[in-house]
Amino acid sequence: MRVLVVDDHPVVRFGLVGLLSRDFEVVEAATGEESVARASTVDVVLMDLQLGKGIDGVEATRRIRALEKPPQVVVLTTYDSDADIVRAVEAGAIGYLLKDCAPEDLAEAVRTASTGQTVLSPDIAQRLLRQVRGPAPKLSKREVQILEHLARGLSNREIAKELFISEATVKTHLVRIFVKLGVETRTAAVTTAVERKLIRL
């Protein structure tokens, strides 16, 4: 598997490349523009949000996901504001991790993202959960539909086709579902939804 590390800090890139090179073939980019130019040659992109001059990580993600055969994009950043998270997901990122995550978690997140599954840092999930947690966060009609399709074992692409929406929209809904249900995986989302009688198998 080939991974692109995008960060404008040379020391950070050096550390990430050294870490990930144990398991993957790794290339790097220092700017958003470089990341877009090199994205078509990789399977997963680890994208920082703030990249100095030029386009930022969100815009780079949007352009990468617009490629003919786009790689998956996982945001890896120190920025964890709600606005940053939503912008990144809406741009097409399949995951959002903080740079203080454990090395083994980062490698596993890359593998998970490569299969098209959403990756969400537990810290981010908890932060968002606190934001949306009311008496009982309710799922929208569309979110229930997404869960029903998940329960059938459909991929993001298959769900998008079934519901006549974009794959990026499916990913956005998945992140919101994960947050509302307080889970981190597709399997846990389905299990929790069934337990709460939100869907039927």
From TrEMBL:
The protein's matches in SUPFAM superfamilies, at most eight in alphabetical order, are given as: CheY-like
One Pfam family it belongs to:
GerE
CDD domains with a match to the protein in the record:
LuxR_C_like (cd06170), REC_NarL-like (cd17535)
PROSITE patterns in UniProt: HTH_LUXR_1, HTH_LUXR_2, RESPONSE_REGULATORY
**Superkingdom, taxonomy of origin:** Bacteria
Segments forming domain Response regulatory: 2-114
What keywords would UniProt list here? DNA-binding, Phosphoprotein, Transcription, Transcription regulation
Q: Does the keyword Signal apply?
A: no
4-aspartylphosphate: modified positions:
48
Domain HTH luxR-type per the UniProt entry, residue ranges: 132-197
Determine if Cell cycle is one of this entry's keywords. Answer: no
What PANTHER family does this protein map onto? TRANSCRIPTIONAL REGULATORY PROTEIN NARL-RELATED, TWO-COMPONENT RESPONSE REGULATOR
Q: What is this protein called?
A: Response regulator transcription factor
Q: Which organism is it from?
A: Lentzea kristufekii
